[in-house]
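queue> holo job accepted (dinuclear copper ion)
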Amino acid sequence: MKMNRYEEIWLMLSGAMLVIFMVITGYQTFALGMGPPSNKETIDPEKVDETAPFDKPGVYQTGDHEYEVVMTLEVFNFNPGKIEIPAGSTVTFIMTSKDVVHGFQVVDTNLNAMVMPGHIQRATQKFSKPGEYLVLCNEYCGTGHQHMSTVITVK
Ligand code: CUA
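queue> job finished
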């Protein structure tokens, strides 16, 4: 059976495109280390309360205008529930979940992280403007999901 010339050309073109995309993706993942972050920092989700730093959730000052918030998430709470920081602070959130996948989205910022059990999630954000920043869980985590929220107060 003889194939139409144009059909052959298009088949070859699409095959070549597939190969090119695979090479580009492979190069980015393995040579440039741009693959999705996985298994970088892990934790036993059953032992979060005994594992540092999560045995002491809270707000810690680490430098001039620098803070760390060690946070655990569980149905349907953020712990610490009350976060207050001075305006102009850069805050690094270190988070893990004690049960299911939760979200950590801070309204009016670019902060939006997925917090998974067994993994430690870090996210840094500078808070320049004073105000109350609403924090929402944006991953469906159970019947109380829509009530899972807290507030970051920047003064
Ligand atoms: Cu936690 Cu939805």
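queue> The helical segments are 5-31.
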